[in-house]
Amino acid sequence: WMTFGQEYLTHLRVIQNIGMSRIDPVMYNGQEIVPIQFLKAVLPNPGDLGENYTGETSIGCRIRGIKDGKEQTYYVYNNCSHEAAYKETGAQGVSYTTGVPAMIGAKLFMQGVWKKPGVWNVEEFNPDPFMKELNEQGLPWHEMFNVDLEL
Fold first, then answer.
1. 90-100, pLDDT tens digit by residue?
2. Where is each Saccharopine dehydrogenase-like C-terminal domain found (predicted)?
3. Nearest-CA neighbor of 92 among 55, 124, 62?
4. Is the pLDDT confidence value at 67 over 90?
5. Integer CA distances (angstroms), 50 to 39, 46, 94, in order
């Protein structure tokens, strides 16, 4: 699951409500503009904000089901410090946790580890080399078994 704070969601609703998320051109003072492109031009560059990020990202996957006749829960997750990511790369943790997995996928493809004839989703490949690389590339993951994660 993915969650966002109420303040973030409120900002998104306001942007939608005032029409700034529109992707179709509108006329403004005789000039055609696309609201979302204008918004991008006036907002700060996300790359410039990393220095001020604090805290951690928390990305995980919870799998719940029946195994051997008993309900089981498995949770695999990673926490990434914004401050540590910025110190290493000059970018905050969201960028780090987006870029590193993409790099690993490209690496596994180029090495032939994730290469088969036809069209494949990454989820269809053996996950073990990917998970091993996450640990080696600065995104260590952790496991929890049969824990209640409900809020």
1. 999 999 999 99
2. 3-139
3. 55
4. yes
5. 20, 7, 9
Take residue 129 and report the two structure tokens written for it.
């080399």
- Domain residues of the chain, as ranges? 6-43, 51-145
Q: Report which secondary-structure segment, H or E, holds 76.
A: strand 70-81
Provide the 3-class DSSP secondary structure of residue 69: coil
Query: Token digits for 100?
Result: 């590193």
Asked if residues 98 and 85 have their Cβ atoms less than 8 Å apart, the reply is no
Residue 128 has pLDDT above 90, yes or no: yes
The residue behind tokens 């990917």 is: 130
| Alpha helices, H only, the chain | 6-17, 35-42, 82-89, 93-110, 127-136
CB 20 within 8 A of CB 6: no
CB distance 88 to 138 below 8 Å? yes
Non-local CB neighbours of 32 within 8 Å, separated by 6+ positions: 25, 26
Q: Using CB atoms within 10 A of its CB, is residue 7 exposed (0-12), middle (13-18) or buried (19+)?
A: exposed
3-state secondary structure 113-127: CCCCCCCCCHHHCCH
